[in-house]
Amino acid sequence: MNTSFIKTQQSKLLNTYKQLMEQAYNFRQMDAALSDILEFKALKLLNELNRLNFLNSNQLIYCKI
Fold first, then answer.
1. 54, 56, 46, 53: which is closest to 21 by C-alpha?
2. Which residues have a Cβ under 8 Å from the Cβ of 7 and sit 6 or more positions away?
3. CA 39 to CA 56: how far, in whole Å?
4. What is the DSSP letter of 4?
5. H runs (alpha helix) in 1-65
6. Which residue among 13, 27, 40, 49 has its CA within the 20 to 30 Å range from the CA of 4?
7. What is the pLDDT of residues 3-21, one digit of tens each?
8. What pTM, to 2 d.p., does this model score?
């Protein structure tokens, strides 16, 4: 995978993650179930971000060898 593609994906996922977490926080008092669903979706995105970070860091290590 291309490093710039990974960085672009990370940026998109991070923005979406932040939006979902903000929405989850805002719905916390009004609709707890919706807040939980939004937070779950955000955590799934965070997991994907962590995978991309791992992939990107491995690519950099292999490029240095």
1. 46
2. 56
3. 25
4. H
5. 3-27, 32-64
6. 40
7. 788 888 899 999 999 999 9
8. 0.78
